[in-house]
Structures are given as C-alpha cells and as structure tokens.
Design a protein that fits this description.
By secondary structure, this protein is α+β, with helices and mostly antiparallel strands. It is built from 22 helices and 28 strands. A seven-stranded mixed beta sheet has the order 3-5-1-12-9-10-11, sandwiched between helices. It has a five-stranded mixed beta sheet with strand order 7-15-14-13-8. A four-stranded mixed beta sheet has the order 18-26-27-28, sandwiched between helices. It starts with 10 loop residues before the first helix and ends in a 6-residue tail after the last helix. GO terms for molecular function: iron ion binding; oxidoreductase activity.
Amino acid sequence: MIGRSIRRVEDRRFLTGRATYVGDVHLPGMLYAAFLRSPVPHGRITLLDTAAAARFQGVVAVLTAADIASRVRPIPLIRRPPTTHEALPAPPVLADGIVRYQGEPIALVVATSPALALDAVEAIQLEFETLPAVGSLNEARGATSPLVHPSLETNIAFSRRLQQGDVEAAFAKAAVRVRQEMRNNRVVPNPLEPRGMVADYDPARQTLTCWLSTQRPHHTRWFLAEILGLPEQDIRVIMPDVGGAFGAKEPMYPDEVAVAYASMVLGAPVKWIETRSEHFLATTHGRDQLADLEIAADRDGRILGLRGEVWLNLGAYLYPNTSGVVLARTLPLLNGCYAIPAVDVTGYGVFTNTVPTGPYRGAGRPEGIYFIERLIDMVATKLEMDPVEIRRRNFVPRGAFPFTTVTGLTYDSGDYHVMLDRALELADYEGLRAAQREAREQGRLLGIGIAAYVELGGATPSTAAAMEGSSPLWESATVTADPSGGVTVRVGTAGHGQGHETAFAQIAASVLELPIESFRVEFGDTATAPFGFGTFGTRSMTIGGSAVYIAGQRLLDRAKRIAAILLECTPEDVDYCQGTFTVRGSPMRSVGFQEVCSAAYYSAAVHQQGESPGLTVQVTYDPPNYTYAAGVHLAVVEIDPSTGEVHLRRYIAVDDCGRAINPMIVEGQVHGGVAQGIGQALFEHAAYTPQAYFTSPSLLDYALPRASALPTIETALYEFPSPSNPLGVKGIGEGGAIAAPPTISNAVLDALRPFGVVHLDMPHTAEQLCQAIACMQTEREGGTGE
C-alpha cells in the first residue's frame, strides 16, 4: 500500500457533512463564553466596571484578572531562548492593569446563550490611559523607542549569533558583494475553522474534559495541568475534527485557559467559538521577519560568504514556541541548498505592541529560504548571469550527501541538480526565455522566477534538542489486532486535514499485508491515544509514521510466534503472505490472520506457551536526525504595466519528499502549500500603523487568494529516501509554502528588470507595482523618481 494513490478514507465524513468539530459539541447545561478585548494597542486600564454586565438576566459570571489571579499560573515557555533577562514576561490569561496589543483579552462573560454573552460584553465599562506604542520592528529597535515591557529596559527579548568559517576573508576576496534589507511580510493564518473550546469540569470527580481545536492534544493537557494546578491524569483533551490549523493551533492561548478556568469555577460546561473577526485579533500571526544580509561571491558566481542580522517580530508576548521560529529554523537554513563556506548571522526576537506571532506553515523555513533565494537572484543580476546557472554552480554537489552545512545541519539525501533540470524541462526554459525577449520587444512585462528550497523536518530528535532549546520530541504508536482480525492504529500525533487516517492505515497495511478496510486509525484523545507531541514541524509521517511502521512489524513478529504454536513449528519456519501464515516447506499447513488474532485472546494453548493475552504493540520512535525535503519551483508571471496587476501564467513544482506514502496526498499538500505561498507573495499583509493600530483586522481588509488567482500547478515528484527513519520519508506539507514566495517574488522582479528595479518587499500588490513602474519611468524621463 505504500506508494499507492488511494482516495482518503476520512473524506467521506467531510464531504457528507458528518464531521464533528468543536462547534458541533453540545452538552447538557452548556454555557457560552465571550471576551472583552482591548481596542487599543497599549494602555493602562483606569476603569473596568462589570456590574452592568453581571446584572443581565442569563449572565452566570463575569471574570477579570482580579478573579483569577490566585488560581491561575502564567503560561510557561517550553523553550528558554538565549537571553540576558532573568525572566521574560508571560502572557496573562486576562490583562491585569495594562494591555499591550489590540485584541488582548480583558474580561470573560459566561451566559446561557452566545448572543447574551456578546450583549453583556458590550455593557462592560472600560476606560484607558493611552500609552506610547510600537507597531513594527523598525519602530521597536530604536534606543528611544517606547517599551512594550518597561521592566526589561529594551524591546529585544533574546538574540543568538551563528558564526562558522572565515567570513572576513570571504568578503575581503569577493569580486561581488550584495547587501539588501528584506522583509518577510506578516500574515494571518486563516483556517476554515477558527479556534474553539468546550471545557467541562466535573466537581464530583474533580476532572476536566476539554474539546479543543488543536494540533497537540497531549501537550495541551500538560499546559492545562501546569497553569490550572490540576494533576495531569485528571485532565482529558479531545481533539475532534479540525478544519485546518497551519501552526496557529499549536500554542496554548490565554483565552482557552480562561474558558477552562470558568468551567472549573462554575462546575458546568462552557463553550467558546472564536469569530473570524476575533481570529484576526487573538490568534497568532505568522512570519514578520526583517533581514539585513550581505552576500559575497567571486566573478564566477561562487558564493563565498553570508553575514548580517535577522529580526523576528514577537508581538507583545513571547508565546511558548515562538523563539524557535527564528533561532532553530531561519538562521540554520539561511544557506538554503547551497554549499556556502562561511556564515556570520545574528538573530533577534523583538517585542512590539502587536498580536503575538507564532509558527505558520513552514515556521521560519519560508523566511530563511526567501532571504537566501532573493540574494542569489541579486548576485546573478549583478554578474549578468542566468539565475539557473548561479544556482547550479552553488548547489550542494551530487554525491555529497549526507552533507554537513556551515550552519551545522546534516542534509540527509537528495539531488538538487536533477530537480532543477526537471523543472527546466517541464517549463521549456529556453523557450520561455525566448518568449520573454519577444515580450519585452513588445513592451510586455514577462518574468520568470526560480527558487530552490530545503526543508528541515521531523522536529525534534534527541540529538538536536540542545540546539533547539527543547526537550526531545519523540512519537509513539500502538497497533492492536482484535479477535476478529480488525486492526486499530492509535498514534500520539494528531492530524488536522493532512490525510493522516489514510496514510497511517497505508503504512500498517503494507506491513501486515491486509486490505486497508481492515484498519482503523485513531488519534486526538488523550484518554485513548498513546502519548505524542502533536502535528507540526513536518513530523507526523517521519516520526509518527515510523512508529506505526515499527509497531506493525513487531505485531507481525508476535503474530508469527502465535501462528507457530498453532502450526506446531518454530517461528523461524513460519512464512507470511497477505494474511496467511504457512509452514516453510509445507504450504498446505496454514492458518489465517484472523485465526491467529482469535487465538491470541482465547487460546489456552497459546497462553500456556508464555504468550500474554491479546495482540497489541506500542512503540516509541526517536529519530537520529532531522529529515531534509527539498525542491525547485518555477513561476511565470506577466505584469500589466498600466495597472500593476500580476497574472500568474504558470507554476511548476518539483519536490523530493523522500518516500511518498500516498502520491495523491503529496500532490494535494503541494497544491495547498503553493496556494498559501501565492497568498503571501501577492495578496496577504497584516498591516499596522507605527502606533500599532491594526489596519487589516478582517477579511474586508485582508486579501486572501481566490481560485481565479491560482494557475494549474504542474508537479513532479522525486523520491530520495531519508536514511533517518525506516520509511525513508521526509515530509511535504510545508514545501509549497516555503518555495512559492521567493519563486513568485523572483519572477516579479525579473519582469521589472528592464526598469532597473532591484528589490521590492512582498506582497507584490497591483498598487505597489504600479507605483514602482511609474517611479522608474519618471526617473528615466529625467524626474526625481521619488
């Protein structure tokens, strides 16, 4: 079954409306929560009067920071980044005196209906003394900038320097140097299903059950135990179907803690479903990195060194996993697919009065790859070299894998040259360049963009935990065969739309050689699933899938021992093929898989031979290294010079995800990732004023790509198996989102090359490009160009 493009088994319930999301959970006596959130980015609360709201008929409780201060602990960090501060401020569950971003929760109303809760929120009297605020990295970095957290005496939360090789010598002998400030624009994750939670505390049993739209059920349970002071065994987290997540449902949020606490106080189930408007103001944003980097090359285009700084906008608070975005992902991947011999870069995390940022599809890898791929194109332009050729000359050489980069990562396998050649073949690259020359003669702006990426996946092996500032993040799986021969696979990782139920079943079916209909895959319930760290960092197939694979093999080994007892031979003499155990040399002596399963539970002869009752195996898998998926993408764009509108004519994606469990699912993941990358490159931008007011807080102001903006995505798949896990898989869920932004940006800048435009930050909106074209035309005609 591994390698077959079978239809996703979970899609039937999604397509027929039978899926169960948090919003579909209804319990007797359920109450409903709504939040009062800050309308200002920075202010001191001078009045917070909840009396009128509390008098509403049907309002059960109104909670503020004063009501929870003695009962709720701060949200803990799971990584401690390198910092000179004794402690970094934890995000409060409800704002206590000071608000630091628009959307920060201040009060929680619990009522008998959602509408009543919202009406009561409107009745709360709230007044502020407005405080100075900073809305971007540029405003926050200055020596006299307003401070988000005055106790720190700076807005810089942490920093780390990554230095290897003789960078000074590299730049001293360089024939070409290119320095550029580049911004990876802030985006708002927009899953179809916003966040939501149902918390049900049982006062009699003193247990808490939470239905939560999350990526990490077991880690959520740990967070709730730490924050609420409950024993972990008294908390059950259930992850129903999840309508997308993209990293935004990975952290533990203050509002979710408040809902759980409200249920504990009231002894009743409390439900909260985030509105789309709330989502913009309360759920972590992604990206928002600023890089000032310089690259050195010789006259032949060989890259000699890279140096500079990368700044991450943390927002108002450092969320539990945010520091790893820049420190463990962006900095180590700044060398991309290239054999760069010397690097000296420093990464910083900076507080601003904006919504906290967190992981978003790719989580630091899209930022690092964007920076290096833009620089590579700029070097090619300066040397008047084809961008294909400069990449070819600097790729990690064929046959050099495993390859240890200057930043300390060991790329496991691959061939970047062959993927480049395939992308060029699919595109008819020489034909495209000829068409471009003809278009330019006609005054048309046709651009061709290329970008290569490598993606660190499988977070986080024990061997790399110290580098990440994290604990080892292994995964576990349990495979159980019931007496009738059905097999249940339970995993600790948790899917949110990637096709896990299908892929995990395919892995187990391949090992046990049974029809896929024989398998049931379960995850997302801490009461039944084995412990796991969840879905993020391209890890579900690489680590969770490997655990399933090994567990299936061990279950088959045990089944062979039981079959040997039934067949009266040694386990070494048992052959197995497609559900049937036979005696080697005596093929007529056989027993079926179902008979073996029944005997495991009911046969006295089997138990008398020392075999424990039942047929179940649990495995924990901790990989020896990350995995490194890679690819080369190519885009063709045409810009309307009169309007600045970008038309995406073609998009080609050539990717290596190691062994593909289900190629059709792989292709779907590429399509989804590319669509999100197109959104970032051309449409999406979470904009703030310098004073930190959010100017795009809804889908009326924030542009997502429509189907009409997406071309037919042409795909090709290579499989260079990873030696880091028994399946050879690498992951593919984030590759499109990593590669698409630099691919499209390079294409846009290539189209503008006749105007001498060197760099423009994303998103490349029609307004931006129209202004750039007009500016350069004015400059050509002897104007100022301003």
